Structures are given as structure tokens and as C-alpha cells.
Structure to design on (92 residues):
């Protein structure tokens, strides 16, 4: 089953939705132009789509962030670095 949620965005003269995939955490956009759907990755999307997404989410954002390293990609990098250092430290 695909767990994606659509958010209608307010973009002047455009019909755009942000799509958030709850399984992968990826965010993309879909624009409807003349009954044709144009899909964008978050990184390649027009900046106006990203701004509209932030404006949509802003009212529900928390007052402060508490970090969750279990979902951070930086945590995955640190696990790799720590493992590498431990393995190479044993060789010394």
C-alpha cells in the first residue's frame, strides 16, 4: 500500500499539490496543466512550489525542534564513520 498525502498549494495561476510519501519521507510536487500531470522531485521543483509548501505547513509547525537522530541522514553518515574509525583503530 502506498502512503502518500496530498497538500493543495496556493500558487498563483497554477494547480499544484505537494505529495508527501510517508513510507520514504520524500516530498514531490504535481502540477496539473491542461489535464496533464507534471511531476517534480523536491530538489528540481520551482522555488515558488517550495515557498507555497512552507506557507501551507507554517501554521502547524512546532514552537521548537527536538532532534531525532534515528531519522537523520547525518546519523547514518556518523555510523559509517564510527565503524570505519573503530575498524582502522584496531589495526594500529
Amino acid at each position: 500500500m502506498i502512503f502518500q498525502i496530498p497538500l493543495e498549494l496556493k500558487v498563483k495561476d497554477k494547480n499544484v499539490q505537494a505529495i508527501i510519501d510517508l513510507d520514504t519521507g520524500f516530498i514531490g510536487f504535481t502540477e496539473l496543466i491542461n489535464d496533464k500531470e507534471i511531476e517534480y522531485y523536491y530538489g528540481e521543483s520551482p522555488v515558488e512550489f517550495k515557498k507555497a509548501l512552507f506557507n501551507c505547513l507554517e501554521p502547524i509547525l512546532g514552537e521548537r525542534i527536538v532532534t531525532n537522530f534515528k531519522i537523520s541522514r547525518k546519523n547514518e553518515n556518523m555510523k559509517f564513520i564510527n565503524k570505519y574509525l573503530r575498524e582502522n583503530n584496531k589495526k594500529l
The chain is about 35% helix and 30% strand. The radius of gyration is 19 Å. Strands lie at 4-11, 14-21, 27-33, 36-41.
